[in-house]
Amino acid sequence: MKPLRWLAFVPSLAIAQATQPHLGTRGVPIIEQDGLRFKDLDRNGKLDRYEDWRLAPEARARDLSARMTLDEKAGTMMHGTARALSRGVLGAGAAYDTAANRALIDSVKVTSMITRLVGDAASIAAQNNALQAIAEHTRLGIPLTISTDPRNHFQDVAGQSVVTPVFSQWPETLGLAAIGDTALVRRFGDIARREYRAVGIHMALSPQADVATEPRWGRISGTFGEDADLALRMVHAYVEGFQHGVRGVDSAGVAAVVKHWVGYGAARGGFDSHGYYGRFASYGPSAGTTNLMYHIRPFLGAFDANVAGVMPTYSILQGATWDGRPIEQVGAGFNRQLLTDMLRTKYGFRGIVLTDWAITNDCAKRCREGAPPGQRPSFDDLGMPWGEEDVPMRTRFVTAVRAGVDQFGGSERADMLIDAVRARELSEARLDSSVVRVLTQTFALGLFEDPYVDTAVAARTVGSADFREAGLDAQRRALVLLENKGAILPFRRPALRVYLRGIAPGAALREGWSVVTDPAQADVAVMRLAAPFQQLHPGYVFGQFLHEGSLAFNDSNPDFAEFERVSAKLPTIAVVYLDRPAILTPIKAHARALIASFGARDEALLDVLAGRARPEGKLPFDLPASMSAVLAQRSDLAHDIPHPLYRFGYGLRY
């Protein structure tokens, strides 16, 4: 990677369009001038500066901001949720609720929305076109910027990722880190970019640059692992792939939002700050600034690639210091030290600061204490205003804007900013600075000229054969071979009798193997297992989903109990999905071969077992030998597990 440039400026935001772009409309008049064509977005019959694609994005954004009402500016600082007809969790569904979304666009003046829509590519594209048609007919014709959580991996967690089967499928980012190939990560980003843009998605709420220094933490699978230097290289390549280069977003790119600034991975006790009980990241009393700097390092790769946005962490950094002073004990979305002193001033970041979702929501009794036994927690109870729980909602908005926030994720309460300006708690000029940053990127993405997509192109592009094969190849390469006793792998016998667990029989039958249901009749067993976990906080919304607690297998785990039974009878290949660094000590003792997986379909796995492909992965974190070793390590330190079973970077080949 090239030396860091510290974002002196973003060239693509300073250079004007040179040639006539394609203009996509659903009824906006076209102005012809100097032999060129422009959209008359405000329908006033003349070419305004913001409509002139020959001008630089920032110049256009400043002109547009000057034309906007206070209501429109406040709406632009909201990053809402596109509603689905199914009224599923957080807007999930197969079709949009047109009336509900029209109300957000027309009344709240929202210009950015997250989509959690699922379905075939052509349908998603058509639905996004329908949203853009609503936006085109607003007073100033400002197009929507449509964002998404990651869609190209295996994990599907409400509010954090979306599994959409039509998209190409790749290992989790941990798997990309296990391969360690920056060219591959760039290619992944480039393919995902083309799939996103094909269906009308313009912003990726990723990558996750957090360093996974606490092995019990439930969000490790979305990171690039434990090593800051590896994560820095991976993050840089990821942003470069998504944004179509390192010059900032352009009309072919997808704006990347790197997260979560900063220190999230040091989750105290491994508990995640989506819950009140997990709101602290823990930095040891002797850490000073040193350990926090380790957690900052991967973000430098994103800054060097001119990342479009930064999402602050929910977490309160307990015990951390910066520039000789303790970090204020509020979440990063409210923290001027982290957003202005560090991010803007020290590191020169000029893009959008987009909060994580719901930091301005109230956190009342059920949010703080969990739902009572026998009752399900509800997303209606959700709020993550850590450090600001006991102040009014409007005060949270004001504090966040003063700290350096530009846009509020998951919020549609534009009225809070409007009231704050009218009460002189914020100046309209301060809102202008955020609005210009947001709209500059909308212009750079080319959306004012053409926000629409071709549904036929979407159907051909998303999940194309080439893209799917690239994802499968990455799944194969990301597998980490930890044990291969007696060189049992790759299988050399053409007519194996296999006992399977967690693998579809059809995949083995296509290999010419016989699938048996009685281990006594098998030559070998192939068994998938998942890293163990506990759900210690089921009364909290994300406590239902996130994996917490012990990393150790025990007999109450049905997969492990079956593994013990089978491995006592015949040679067993164990394939363990590691969303956290599991304790594999008892698996290692009894398995003939042991493979770590970060997401692999059956066909990718069997290609490796049969020898058509080779495992290339190296562990992106240490694997502990015992829970006592886990308890002995510090949440903010990397590579500090005593006597790990397997060290970072370990992996065999054949």
Work out the number of β strands: 22
Terminal Cα separation, in Å? Answer: 30 Å
β-strand percent reads 5-15%
**Cross-sheet strand order for the largest sheet:** 15-11-9-8-7-5-3-16
Q: Please, what is the average pLDDT? A: 95
Helix proportion: 25-40%
Helix/strand class: alpha/beta
Helix count, DSSP H or I runs of 4 or more residues: 20
User: Low-confidence spans: pLDDT under 50, at least 5 residues?
Assistant: 1-9
User: Sheet bearing the most strands, described?
Assistant: 8 strands, parallel
Shape: globular
Integer-rounded radius of gyration: 25 Å
Essential attributes:
single chain, 654 residues, alpha/beta, six-stranded mixed beta sheet, 22 strands, 32% helix, 12% strand, disordered N terminus
Offer a concise description of the structure.
By secondary structure, the protein is of the alpha/beta class. The chain is built from 20 helices and 22 strands. The chain has an 8-stranded parallel β-sheet with strand order 15-11-9-8-7-5-3-16. A 6-stranded mixed β-sheet has the order 17-22-21-20-18-19, with helices on both faces.
Task: Lay out the secondary structure.
Elements: E1 30-33, E2 36-39, H1 57-67, H2 70-76, E3 78-81, E4 92-93, H3 98-108, E5 112-114, E6 116-117, H4 121-136, E7 145-148, H5 173-179, H6 182-198, E8 203-204, H7 228-242, E9 255-261, E10 280-282, H8 290-304, E11 309-312, E12 316-318, E13 321-322, E14 325-326, H9 336-346, E15 352-353, H10 365-369, H11 393-403, E16 408-409, H12 414-422, H13 428-444, H14 455-461, H15 465-478, E17 480-484, E18 497-501, H16 505-509, E19 514-516, E20 524-530, H17 558-567, E21 572-577, H18 585-590, E22 593-597, H19 602-609, H20 627-632
Parallel strand pairs: 3-5, 3-16, 4-6, 5-7, 7-8, 8-9, 9-11, 10-12, 11-15, 18-19, 18-20, 20-21, 21-22
Antiparallel strand pairs: 1-2, 13-14, 17-22
